[in-house]
Amino acid sequence: MTPLIITCAVVGAELTREQTPYLPLTPAEIADECLRAAEAGAAMVHIHARDPLTGEPTQSADVYAEIVARVRARSDVIVQISSGGAVGMSAAERLQPVLDERVAPEMASLTAGTVNFGDGVFWNSAELMRDFARAMTARGIKPEIEVFDLGHIANALRLVKEGLLHPPLHFDFVLGVPGGLPGEIRHLVQCVAEIPPGSTWSVAGVGRSQLPLNTAAILMGGHVRTGLEDNIYYRRGVLSEGNAPLVARIVRLAEELGRPVATPAQARELLGLAVPG
Ligand code: KMH
Ligand code: ZN
């Protein structure tokens, strides 16, 4: 059985401390959450930065650099940064940590199309996607192609035809965002059917769809994204006390269902990432 890559999205851009007191906000808190997730079994972390003073989302390369340095000092977990940032940020703002040599992530998210995002619009034009893909390729950063809707897969394949994305591709299906594909297993099955053979994929289910979609992915041979960015509850009405309990539950499920859990080194091999020297 292919080892299961668990990605933990530890903070996101939208959540507040009012929604959960377990949300990390400062660079030290975000890095510590990444390390706890890694200790619990995550091979990769998906990182958003927050302004250390206000807790608001930021794409400041300085803040990303501090978080990433703290993580790297203590773990070999794969660092994937967000190029999505928050709804309303400009393309240039979002791209800052991708361009910064101090951050130098192994992977970055690349959303493959515009989507309604709650009451907002998460803007990802063809031109923006091309610019982001070029910037990542030029720096040896592997994109995680974020798919919020079925048409996003076709957009990504268009970038492959244009020579801007290079197989084997890695997709993350983010299902359950109000405005995107709902968090139903039948939509996950549709997404998997549309991607080229040889691709790798994971699924992130928003809110209550997180656990069933993650479980389906374990059984289907895909990979899993969990974490507070997508869901703050451990079970109905009970907040998860940080990211580690969500990761630990996936580890237990994988063991029960016969999937070994990937180490960062195994995940690098599966994703075609260079081994850090
Ligand atoms: N915060 C969302 C608008 C990504 O990280 O690339 C976008 C997002 C996707 O979280
Ligand atoms: Zn994100």
What do you see in this structure?
Helix content is 38%, strand content 19%. With 277 residues, it is α/β, with parallel strands linked by helices. It has an eight-stranded parallel beta barrel with strand order 1-2-5-6-9-10-11-12, surrounded by eight helices. Bound molecules: (5S)-5-amino-3-OXO-hexanoic acid (KMH) and zinc ion. (5S)-5-amino-3-OXO-hexanoic acid (KMH) is lined by residues 12-14, 82-84, 86-87, 109, 111, 117, 122, 146. Residues 9, 12, 46, 48, 82, 84, 109, 229 line the site of zinc ion.
Secondary-structure topology with pairs:
Layout: E1 6-9, H1 27-40, E2 44-47, E3 49-50, E4 57-58, H2 61-74, E5 78-81, H3 91-99, E6 107-111, E7 115-117, E8 120-122, H4 126-138, E9 142-147, H5 150-161, E10 170-175, H6 185-194, E11 200-205, H7 210-220, E12 223-226, E13 233-235, E14 238-239, H8 244-256, H9 264-271
Parallel strand pairs: 1-2, 1-12, 2-5, 5-6, 6-9, 9-10, 10-11, 11-12
Antiparallel strand pairs: 3-4, 7-8, 13-14
Helix pairs in contact: 1-2, 1-8, 2-3, 3-4
(5S)-5-amino-3-OXO-hexanoic acid is lined by residues 12-14, 82-84, 86-87, 109, 111, 117, 122, 146.
Supply database-style keywords.
two-stranded antiparallel ribbon; single chain; alpha/beta; 19% strand; binds zinc ion; binds (5S)-5-amino-3-OXO-hexanoic acid; eight-stranded parallel beta barrel; 277 residues; 9 helices; 38% helix
Whole-number radius of gyration? Answer: 17 Å
Instruction: Describe the main β-sheet briefly.
Output: 8 strands, parallel, barrel
Decide which structural class fits the backbone.
Answer: alpha/beta
Q: Proportion of β residues?
A: 15-25%
Which of globular, elongated, flat, extended, rod-shaped describes the shape?
Answer: globular
Helix count, DSSP H or I runs of 4 or more residues: 9
pLDDT < 50 stretches? none
User: What small molecules are bound in this structure?
Assistant: (5S)-5-amino-3-OXO-hexanoic acid, zinc ion
| Spatial strand sequence of the major β-sheet | 1-2-5-6-9-10-11-12
One letter per element, helices H and strands E, the order comes to EHEEEHEHEEEHEHEHEHEEEHH
The mean pLDDT is: 98
Rounded to the nearest angstrom, the distance between the terminal CA atoms is 28 Å
Helix content: 25-40%
Number-wise, the strands total: 14
